[in-house]
Amino acid sequence: MSRGGGRGHTRVKTSRGRTPQSNRWLERQLNDPYVKRAKAEGYRSRAVYKLLELDEKFDFLKGSKRVIDLGIAPGGWTQLVRKRLPKAAVVGIDLLPVDPIDGATILQMDFMDDAAPDRLVEELGGAPDLILSDMAANTVGHAQTDALRTLGLVEAALDFAIRTLAPGGDFVAKVFAGGADSALVAEMKRNFTTVKHAKPPASRKGSVEWFVVAQGFKGRTEEVPE
Ligand SMILES: C[S@@+](CC[C@H](N)C(=O)[O-])C[C@H]1O[C@@H](n2cnc3c(N)ncnc32)[C@H](O)[C@@H]1O
């Protein structure tokens, strides 16, 4: 590693065993102000600042008592939720193992598993009033395929939100620009008072990631078929 390319900019020398792609990733990580800030403030991910900035704009954390974090690993979002809402119950789920977070219950399982929705609500001890989803499918590098795979996760998360949220609850989810399709937005608008898209400053400009924030769940007016 060497200093160069401007004040404070860390350059990463190509070394054997590191591909140019992983080199670029490492260089970007080392020079990213959000990565530095996360380290300094004790957060496990730079992703935490996306949630923080979204909350600054939409104010969905305040007053939440039961929170679900879909795609919790490594845990930055839940760390922030616990800090802001020390009394709230928080349950997270991820395919990957996550180091314990004080006051949060973490399930290591696939959210797409049929048993996952019931397990989440059971662990939470009641209806959630805030459902967060930062889930993204592993990218394969083909933009359309990646968008579709993440769309599948968002659809499942929205379905879960509509089935379980307490009236007045909020749903915040990562979507891909090409992925927040009109049917999904229409479904959100049917079920929530306001639906907004946002790209927080912490979301890298080059990434196609966006977030959708649906607030004020209208409640289940009719039984959702099993
Ligand atoms: C961008 S990361 C989440 C970062 C997190 N918000 C934070 O602040 O630390 C997305 C996560 O979604 C998880 N994920 C993707 N598909 C999933 C699925 N089907 N079930 C559970 N987790 C999933 C991935 O394993 C990954 O850890």
TrEMBL record:
InterPro entries: RNA_methyltr_RlmE, RNA_MeTrfase_FtsJ_dom, rRNA-MeTfrase_E, SAM-dependent_MTases_sf. Coiled coil: none annotated. One of its GO terms (cellular component) is cytoplasm. Its EC number is 2.1.1.166. S-adenosyl-L-methionine binds at G75, W77, D94, D110, D134. It comes from the Bacteria. The active site is at K174 (proton acceptor). It is found in: Cytoplasm. Residues 43-217 form the Ribosomal RNA methyltransferase FtsJ domain. Residues 1-16 have a biased composition (Basic residues). The keyword S-adenosyl-L-methionine applies. The keyword Methyltransferase applies. Its main location: cytoplasm. It catalyses: uridine(2552) in 23S rRNA + S-adenosyl-L-methionine = 2'-O-methyluridine(2552) in 23S rRNA + S-adenosyl-L-homocysteine + H(+). One of its GO terms (molecular function) is rRNA (uridine-2'-O-)-methyltransferase activity. It holds the Pfam family FtsJ. Keywords: Cytoplasm, Methyltransferase, rRNA processing, S-adenosyl-L-methionine, Transferase. Residues 1-23 are annotated as: Disordered. Belongs to the class I-like SAM-binding methyltransferase superfamily. RNA methyltransferase RlmE family. PANTHER family: RIBOSOMAL RNA METHYLTRANSFERASE, RRNA METHYLTRANSFERASE 2, MITOCHONDRIAL. Specifically methylates the uridine in position 2552 of 23S rRNA at the 2'-O position of the ribose in the fully assembled 50S ribosomal subunit. This is Ribosomal RNA large subunit methyltransferase E. It comes from Sphingomonas psychrotolerans. The lineage of its organism: Bacteria, Pseudomonadati, Pseudomonadota, Alphaproteobacteria, Sphingomonadales. The gene is rlmE.
